[in-house]
Amino acid sequence: MSPDCLQAGLFTSFGTIVYLDPATRTLRHGPIDHVPDNLVLLVPQQSTSHQCRARYTPGAGKAEDFGFGRDGLKPILDESSAAAPLELIALERGLFCLKLGNAFLSAYPDGNFGFAKTCSTWELFLISADLAHGGYPETDYRSEGYAVRDIQEYIVHPAIRARTGVRPLRAKLLAFGYPAWSHGRVYYDLSKNLYKKGYIVDILNWQQNHAQHLDALQSYYDCFITALDGVSVLVDTYKVPYERIIAVSHHEFDIRMLIERKGIEAFEKFSNYAVVSDYVYCASMMSGISRPPMVASLGIDYGTFYSPIAQHLDAVGYATSMATKTYGVEWKRGALAQSAAAAAGLPFKVAGSTAKQTSFHDMPEFYRSVGAIITSSISEAAQLPVMEGAAAGRLVIGTPVGHFPQKACQGGGILAPVQADRFVSFTAATLKFYKENPSAYVEKCHSIQEAARKFDWQFSIQDWVDLIEGRRM
Predict the structure, then answer these.
(1) Could you tell me which residues come within 8 angstroms of residue 9 by beta carbon, excluding any fewer than 6 positions away?
(2) Whether CATH 3.20.20.80 fits 158-299+458-469
(3) In the chain, what are the domain boundaries?
(4) Which of 19, 177, 231, 407 could lock onto 412 through a cystine, CB 3.0 to 4.6 A?
């Protein structure tokens, strides 16, 4: 074995460990602690081909290096020089696939292996070595042979990641939150972007009970990161100390709720405390919290949402809940956006609601189906639809709340009055103008889309690095 090779344990995406069956001399996988731990992948640290062989490490006896049979049926032990290595391909978030020629190594549910033409869920693997900075750049897997949606929707369960024992260059963070809708989008993007910076970020669904493995997760992950909504459950149910929590406010309302539940002194105890926009920073200070929060700005994956600009304005989109009442106040006001579209003579399309949600992976297609995106709230923090719609090259109109005034000043949209009647009349008139003037519509959408380039995560991810590195240890 080359001294430049790493020895890495190999795990399937469902948490089983890959081993060599001593009796049949074939590759298999099974539950950790119930099957032999006798195989490591030999991964070259500096290689342009990323060709990997494997090493059989029996408890007693000589270790054997091997490749794989070229018949394409199943991998078998073969010490001859004719044995073919596997190509290790980095995908995203620490997920890998293994190819032999044009076929993907596939872990079958019965514990056997075979090959598949497409990389989907059972073709995903995790390894115990950190390769984020070892000459293994992520591949652009949005090409033939990869089930893109299956890869993106696969969530690495923290218990599986912990079993691999992988030690990244920097910290391991466990996001306690909601894996769908806008929070799911944020956690997914953070996981992808921070992995490239040397971090591991996994999500623990706060709608499920995790008592059975919380102790193990606390031992593996360096700290938890959560919206303020999740603090009480972490502290009271799972007994996670405040000092191991990075708390992030996504709205002025969650600040008020946490103060009511835990008192204002809770904010002093966190490992670190942040808000997602300058707007919420001010709300935090005005709530009487003496600890100034860091501002960890949200971004978008510009390339994911980018699409050709429509030539005509023929439909209006709305990408959040139509109605949400908090402390007795209706603050989403989707009916106003619908009224403005009707007054302009345009169809009104809603992407989803809290009760009936559209997957955030489907949102790029939703934006392509409309010509404008409207937000009508009286309170927001760092709304994603205005940035996503802008990247899609759509006409964006919104109230001056949250971070939208800043985004609009940067060219990312049009500010509308916040008063209900004035919002409807202004938005209806604006929509009607661009509906009747296609050339002006195209020009405006183009300028909005160009401005949205600055909304990409590359311009805000450092805020999150600073947040993590600035935590109290």
Answers:
(1) 17, 18, 37, 39, 40, 41, 127, 128, 164, 165
(2) no
(3) 5-151, 158-299+458-469, 302-455
(4) 407
